[in-house]
Structures are given as C-alpha cells and as structure tokens.
Amino acid sequence: MRGRVRAVAPAPRPPWAREERDFISSCTRCDACIDACPTAILVRADGGFPAVDFSRGECTFCGDCVTHCAPRALLRPAEGDAPWSLKASIGQACLAAAGVECRVCGENCPVGAIRFRPRIGGVALPQLEAEACTGCGACFAPCPTRAIVVQAPVECDVPTESEQ
Ligand code: SF4
Ligand code: SF4
Ligand code: SF4
Q1: How many whole angstroms from 150 Cα to the centroid of ligand 1?
Q2: Ligand 1 neighbourhood includes 53 CB (under 6 angstroms)
Q3: Are residues 104 and 149 in the same domain?
Q4: Which residue, 6, 47, 84, 130, has most beta carbons within 10 Å?
Q5: Dist. CA 121–CA 66, nearest whole Å
Q6: Which InterPro entries does the entry mention (predicted)?
Q7: Are 51 and 20 in a shared domain?
Q8: Looking at the structure, do residues 45 and 97 belong to the same domain, yes or no?
C-alpha cells in the first residue's frame, strides 16, 4: 500500500503559466514578464526561469506578463480562465491562534476570503474560505509572523512508515 505525502512546493510560476514541462520548454528566459509586472512580484528563479515572490507584493491578475510573453509560455486561452491553482493557508505561527489580537491578513485580502470569528474569552480567529481565495498573495507579506503559505496543492506517492 502507498500513502499520499505532502511535498515541499516549488516557487510558483507566473499566472497563466503552461503546465510545468511545457512552460520550461517554451520559456526563453527573456525576462519580459518580469519587466512588465507592475507590482514587481516576478523574479528570476532557478535556471533563470521566472517565478512569483509574494514577499514583494501581490498579483493583481492584470495579465501584463501574459501579454508580454512572446513565446506563449504564459498563455490565457480564454477570458475568465483561472490563473493558477494557488491557495493561501494559515499555519501555526498565527498570532491570533496564540491569543494575540491580529487581523492583518483579513484587512489585506481584496476578496474578503479571510474572516474573523469572535470567541468568548479569546481573540477572534481567522477563517480562510478556500473557495473564495484567488491565491493573489496579498495576505502573505503583511503577516507579521509569516504564518501564511500560498501554494498549489502538491502531493506525491511516497510510502509512509506504516506502509513499508
Ligand atoms: S498578472 Fe499582472 S500583477 Fe500578476 S504577475 Fe502578471 S504582470 Fe504581475
Ligand atoms: S516573458 Fe515568457 S518567455 Fe520571457 S521569461 Fe517570461 S515566461 Fe519566459
Ligand atoms: S491569497 Fe489573496 S485571496 Fe487568498 S486569502 Fe490571501 S489575500 Fe485573500
């Protein structure tokens, strides 16, 4: 029997990037997307290929990177196509979970995907609605403890200890 084990996710590609293998074979590492991004969140990553760095800001889904990608490594086939499968999640370093009042992530979410549920005898806790989250990354940098992770679900078949 084999188990499903979560692996470490690589830095995300720009929005509307083609499937990774096709992206790598078509991207010429020209930097045009990096230069075009108005929020400057695109950086040269491993091998000179572009990736998103949410510590620099958020994606507004303007599509300027796609427009400037001549070899179509970034490709939006139709208006309304999802830019990526990225979602935010809140980890154990969250201040509110430790009893410290903090609502910074919710205040910075442009789509209201993070709401705070009042608690009797404790500070309000964040609740992230995954369906509403666009993976824009706006909540990542402002979080004082970097408790937020923005990534695509990554799973691989690895035997777990009990299965070996
Ligand atoms: S969609 Fe716009 S904001 Fe987002 S990475 Fe591309 S250029 Fe930058
Ligand atoms: S514009 Fe396209 S080809 Fe150029 S670095 Fe960006 S993704 Fe690669
Ligand atoms: S990634 Fe964007 S949409 Fe998702 S919770 Fe954070 S700020 Fe909101």
Answers
A1: 16
A2: no
A3: yes
A4: 84
A5: 49
A6: 4Fe4S_Fe-S-bd, 4Fe4S_Fe_S_CS, NapF
A7: yes
A8: no
